[in-house]
Amino acid sequence: MKNVLKYIALTAVVLVAASSCEKFLDRPNKDSYNSQNFYQDEQQCIQGVNYLYNSPWYDFIRGFYRVGECFSGNYYMGSSPYLQFTVNGSDKELRDMSSSLWAVNAHATTVYNRLKQVEGVNQATVNMCMGEALTWKAFAYFFLVRSFGEVPIIHDMSTLIGDNSYNDVYKAPKADVYNYIVKVLEKAMELLPKKVANKDGRIDYYAAEALLAKVYLQKAGVSGSLNQEDLDKAAAYAKDVIENSGRELMENYSDVFRMQNNKNIECLISWHWDASAQPWTAQNSFQSDLGMNGFDEFGDVWGQWNGPSIALQDQFGVSALDDPKQRSDTDTRRKATMMMAGDVYDYFWTTNGGFDYLRFFYDPDYGPSGTTNASDGAMNSPTGAGCVKFLYGDGNDHMAALGVSAGRMAYGLSTHILRLADVYLVYCEAKLHGPGSSTTDALALECYNAIRNRAIPGTWSEKTVITFDEVFKERNLELALEGDRWYDYVRVGYYNPDYCVADIQAQRRNAYGSGLDDLYSAYYESGTWGDTSKITYNKDEFTPTADAIKTKLAALPFPSEDVVYNPHLEEEAQPFDLSTITF
Fold this sequence. Notes:
Layout: H1 2-6, H2 11-18, H3 42-50, H4 61-70, E1 75-76, H5 81-84, H6 92-116, H7 123-148, H8 157-162, H9 174-191, H10 205-219, H11 228-244, E2 267-271, H12 286-290, E3 307-308, H13 310-316, H14 332-337, E4 338-339, E5 344-345, E6 355-356, H15 357-362, E7 386-387, H16 395-402, E8 415-419, H17 420-430, E9 438-439, H18 442-455, E10 466-467, H19 468-479, H20 485-493, H21 497-505, H22 516-526, H23 546-554, H24 560-565
């Protein structure tokens, strides 16, 4: 495929990227690296893998959110084809997403192969770096198979480049792709150290094992019915991580997502971004798409016309039409996930005394870091809510947390893509057997109750039995807006697509009609909640059909240009002989 060739990572390119990536380790102060003089010591080997934690993933950012959250109904984005299940192979975000995932595969493989050639360097360090590269390769394939279904297995590009066959590869069946991911992760676990003090945010054995547990849970239903052996392996690997990794849930849910906690004890695998944006693709730019115009002082935020969905508000049991003073809001994750009328945040705009959601829209003198308010003076979210996760605040917040300045579309807030709470819920689901099932497994109850106790401290009774529906909902409340929800539907859709169709079609995925801005502005001025009877939910705006949902659950379309370069992508998948894979 064109994108495979396009993103083949020549060693010299890798080294240039490595010399300018995210500074989560001290870096040698050298330049002009090439394949002959790099990887000469432990520090250079570590530095050579660091950029895999950011740069190749950058073009996936928008697809990550659109697929994970718009498809799933958690995020409203107007007429987006991801909201309306009409995305096709010409979509730019889909194309960028595919390119990025193949880039990760190419870069990770190149780094791994180069490290295999290293001599005279501590082998434990070299092994650690190779294990990190393989884990990133496995994660890229995990996104590929969950998104595009049957995809080619490209283990090593050098052969394909050598014989000019890179555009002549066939898709492999989904089961083979999952088994390939398992094989890659098992090798990564052989190489990685059992425990790494989690102060530098690096992948260790237990991070790879946590991903393996999630892979086994996902693949358990790929044949069309749940495979008990896969469920048992998912549970066993998750249990080992829970009991032996040394990871813990952070005490305060919202602290997981703060910049000063970029490398925290709960998060197992994260993208660690570089605010200096050298190279450009090393930086985080989520806030630009998800924040509101004027949220920072760089003029780079434009997400005010979208927002967390009404369906997600329903999941949390709140409504944008409720009087904030009367709102029943016991789950602390709601405020840490989406801002609503009445919310004030002490960790945004810290030099302004905090960030007030409504004041931001209606006080013309209220701006980030003491600047003039750059919002347009109206609350434009069609759902009445704004994102919190993936936002860092203003320039002063960034400097206080990381000691470096943010820039235009360039911030250093890490993106956590696998955390311990997810592993808890993987274990819970692995002890169930799909919709309609329940469990009294002691560790499952302990995990479920621990997550609930953090979210709703002291206001609920602990469970003595949990059902599939409860765990499925809890995954959404815990991981909402973290790019993962659609893949929950994909997993269940393998063996029970009707369950997913019913759940998605029951969502309030659309927007409110006019009147929210008038309601909120009057409330800000008077402190009195107005009449909401004329603000209606646009129930007839759009409801995805069952066929559309099932089609996208099975596979997203390949980018059109990939199909042009490799017509085999439209043909039947060919079984892949995994015995040919060597490391």
